[in-house]
Amino acid sequence: MRNAREYKLLYVVAIIMVVTISTMGSTYAYFAARTSSDDSTLNTGSTTYSISMDINPIYSGFSFIPMNDVDALKGIKNECHDKYNRGVCSAYSIRVYGYSSNLDFVSGYMNVDTNNIENLSYMMFENSDTYDEDNCFEYNGEYYCKVVPATHVVEEENLSLGDSYDVRNKSETKIILLIWLSNLNRSQNENDIGNFNASITMQAGNGGEIKGSIASAVVVDDGNEGGSDNGGE
Q1: 147 and 162 in contact (C-beta within 8 Å)?
Q2: pTM for the whole thing?
Q3: Which domain holds residue 98?
Q4: Residue 227 lies in a domain
Q5: pLDDT digits (tens, 9 = 90+) for 119-137
Q6: Is the separation of the CB atoms in 178 and 59 below 8 Å?
């Protein structure tokens, strides 16, 4: 089995950011986050719009166990670790930029295909100038506040990444995607050891769009079974 350093070198060459997630029992799942292109030009009617998107993992590189949905905000406030320093989630930053000054709004959705993962959940946060202890966290000196609550991933549905984001007078829009396994307080080895592929789509206000992806593969490693009963405190 390749060690973490070998994987890092491999994906640096491929220009793919690698993050790690462990379901339960004895598995690690390696997730690669990338945009489908560095820059996409959107053509809508007689007007051409340009828009770019980056997807990068921000809390990753460790195994994680199932987490209670109510503890998701605690989890990300504690950099995706619980009070026992066990990994409980993975988080990705999504930055939309390089759009035309004519653009007023962008919105987004996610499509997920799963293979033997039944209890995947997600939450979305938007960059904000204000802070609310019950809905926000701080990352890199900036506030991010909840725009999509804890939501169970349903395969083949368009899963909202939040309502339309106002991009007027903004050079970029930053949101964060949090992903975890919902804790069922029982063994989840049978139903939550697998992989998934997620497609991230950001749309311009007039219908143009740019796509990115999060893909997964699973390799075997040692781990301890159990769920987190507290995302932080």
Answers
A1: yes
A2: 0.76
A3: 4-220
A4: no
A5: 999 999 999 999 999 999 9
A6: no
